[in-house]
Write a structure and sequence with these properties.
about 180 residues; elongated; mainly alpha
Amino acid sequence: MRQGSGGHGPAIRFRATGGFLLVAHLLLVGWITLRPLDVPWVSAANLQPLAGIKADLALGGLQAARRIGESVLLLAPLGFLLPLAGGRLVVSPWGSLVRTVAAGAMLSLGIELLQTGVPGQVVDIDSLLLNTFGVALAHVAVVPAVRARLRRGDDGERRVALPREEAPQGPTPTIPRVGIAP
């Protein structure tokens, strides 16, 4: 069954909402992580994986949970905002997870690299690990259920209002071979 131009309205709204929320979240993250801080001293950069997490755990349960939780939750919304902005309902779950986590890791790496030039901000490899973990956790917790609900619709019937990952376009055209003249 072929849909007319009216079938793309929900897809456009879905992607526009996702794109708007994604930009708003990235602006908030940029403001939190890249603004200069007026501090009397700055600790050294942490380039040893898990050293900062161990130091946080040594502070005690509540303080450790707060500091680790902040790092996990900072980029966690990307776990569902990136697929929302993509707007695809029928997609490989593993492919979606890998793409989303890779994008989250690259964004976190970019933030950490940009922090090297910001007064009062320090590079921390554990932030990269925890941010990436947060993106993966949010994706696994939210995206499969939301996609299934959107595919099913309110009436319980299967519907496809949004485009598939790639629509089949038929076989690749071939060019007939022409012999070489003697």
